[in-house]
Amino acid sequence: MGRHDDVLATWREYADDVRGQPLPCDHYLPEEAPEETAGRLLAFFQEQTS
Prior knowledge:
Layout: H1 7-12, H2 29-32, H3 34-49
Organism: Streptomyces axinellae
InterPro entries: AB_hydrolase_fold (IPR029058)
Protein name: Alpha/beta hydrolase
C-alpha cells in the first residue's frame, strides 16, 4: 500500500496524531515481521502510559 499511496497522509485527513513507518513485510505484519511489529506496538503503548 505504501508503495502506491501515502498512507499516513490519508490517515492525517481524519486524525491529528498519526505516526508510522514501513516494516519489512507485506500484508500480514505479525506473521511476517513479528519482532518488529511487537516492538513498534510496545513502544506505542509505553508512550501512551507515560
